[in-house]
């Protein structure tokens, strides 16, 4: 079985290990039964880090898979896994954070998560998630209020570490100006078409681990695109090295000194994606990849919010930092 390299992040127990590669558990149409089966397969082939979110509706099947993996003896203890979940934007208010993490823990059937992330720097005034989000529900986040509640979650032992997702340096600097516990992780879009060079430097300087999401451009998912998998430069390198485009993209991310989460619920593709740790890209290949024209994917304006809104425009502009 492949052993996935690890790094460490700050936590309530000092520095703790996190596997650099995780399995994304954002389903694209697959039902709970399929999600549970996929996670069990993933544990069998060597994945130990799983990335879910309240938004995805996959906390429950992920929790059921963990229970089943323990029962089957695939793992000896829950502590062998690294589980991340995220606070959805309809709970980004100080008094809503604790109830939200407690609900996630109930869904997962766990006593703690390893990492709890603020999913987006955004407030949505809607009890039930409705996407696309109606314009009148969109509001600015009060990050101090939310971050203090995130710190409380860690202090209470509900999560080992806390972090953010889709945050640009401006807002992270604001958090750092008052935080008792600084963010351990920032999870953002990252792939050869959106390389995040500057954000990576910024995070490294501040001891924040960058985690790349949609490393394959979410190819085939309803929120995704085919620009990574159909990129000429990546296809040429893949052909000359006898690898797949997915492997070239994942190996490239790995070589940037970050962690990443990639979703596949197909056993063969899960294995293929794991097969990137015993070879490397050449200087020439890295140079070619560094010259790929950059284009951020419009996750917020594209799939979540259909009408223009100042708060959304500001988040998009902040995230265009490169
Ligand atoms: N914080 C945030 O805002 C966000 C976080 N995320 C997280 O990041 C994870 C990964 O990103 P995601 O957006 O899912 O997209 P990915 O870039 O991981 O792509 C996933 C898609 O690629 C397909 N795929 C996987 N491996 C291969 C392969 N080797 N060859 C061909 N196709 C492949 C999958 O299909 P199949 O399953 O059939 O293999 C799936 O459709 C998410 O699952 C989620 O956990 C994602 C978006 C935003
Ligand atoms: O439809 C939802 C949007 O694309 C966006 O909210 C998601 O991509 C989300 O950030 C995720 O984590 O998967």
CATH-defined topology: TIM Barrel
Quick one: how many beta strands?
A: 12
CATH class: Alpha Beta
- As a percent range, the share of strand residues is 15-25%
CATH superfamily: NADP-dependent oxidoreductase domain
Number of domains: 1
How many DSSP H or I helices? Answer: 12
CATH architecture: Alpha-Beta Barrel
Compute the average pLDDT: 97
Order of helices and strands: EEEHEHEHEEEHEHEHEHHEHHHH
Q: Any low-confidence stretches, pLDDT <50, length ≥5?
A: none
Radius of gyration using CA atoms only: 19 Å
Major sheet summary line:
8 strands, parallel, barrel
User: Can you list the ligands bound to this structure?
Assistant: NADPH dihydro-nicotinamide-adenine-dinucleotide phosphate, D-galacturonic acid
Helical fraction: 25-40%
What general outline do the C-alpha atoms trace?
globular
Alpha carbon gap, first and last residue: 37 Å
Strand line-up across the major sheet: 3-4-5-6-9-10-11-12
Structural class by secondary-structure content: alpha/beta
GO molecular function, one term: oxidoreductase activity, acting on the CH-OH group of donors, NAD or NADP as acceptor
Keywords: Oxidoreductase
Protein name: NADP-dependent oxidoreductase domain-containing protein
Pfam families: Aldo_ket_red
């Amino acid at each position: 079985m492949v052993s996935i390299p690890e790094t460490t992040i700050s936590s309530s127990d000092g520095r703790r290990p996190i596997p650099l590669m995780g399995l994304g558990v954002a389903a694209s149409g697959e039902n709970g039964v399929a999600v549970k089966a996929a996670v069990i397969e993933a544990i069998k082939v060597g994945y130990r880090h799983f990335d879910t979110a309240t938004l995805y509706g996959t906390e429950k099947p992920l929790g059921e898979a963990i229970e089943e993996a323990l029962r089957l003896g695939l793992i000896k203890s829950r502590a062998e896994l690294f589980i991340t979940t995220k606070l959805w934007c309809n709970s980004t208010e100080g008094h809503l954070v604790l109830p939200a993490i407690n609900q996630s823990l109930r869904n997962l059937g766990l006593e703690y998560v390893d990492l709890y992330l603020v999913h987006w720097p955004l407030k949505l005034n809607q009890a039930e998630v409705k996407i696309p989000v109606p314009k009148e529900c969109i509001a600015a986040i009060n990050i101090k209020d939310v971050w203090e509640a995130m710190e409380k979650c860690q202090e209470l032992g509900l999560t080992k570490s806390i972090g953010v997702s889709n945050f640009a340096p401006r807002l992270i600097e604001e958090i750092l100006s008052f935080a008792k516990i600084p963010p351990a992780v920032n999870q953002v879009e990252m792939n050869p078409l959106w390389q995040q060079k500057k954000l990576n430097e910024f995070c490294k300087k501040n001891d924040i681990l960058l985690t790349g999401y949609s490393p394959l451009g979410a190819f085939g998912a309803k929120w995704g695109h085919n620009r990574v998998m159909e990129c000429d430069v990546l296809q040429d390198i893949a052909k000359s090295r006898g690898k797949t485009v997915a492997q070239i993209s994942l190996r490239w991310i790995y070589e940037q000194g970050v962690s990443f989460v990639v979703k596949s619920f197909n056993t063969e593709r899960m294995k293929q994606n794991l097969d990137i740790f015993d070879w490397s890209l050449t200087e020439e290949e890295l140079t070619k990849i560094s010259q790929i024209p950059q284009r951020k994917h419009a996750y917020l304006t594209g799939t979540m919010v259909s009408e223009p809104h100042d708060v959304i425009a500001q988040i998009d502009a902040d995230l265009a930092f490169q």
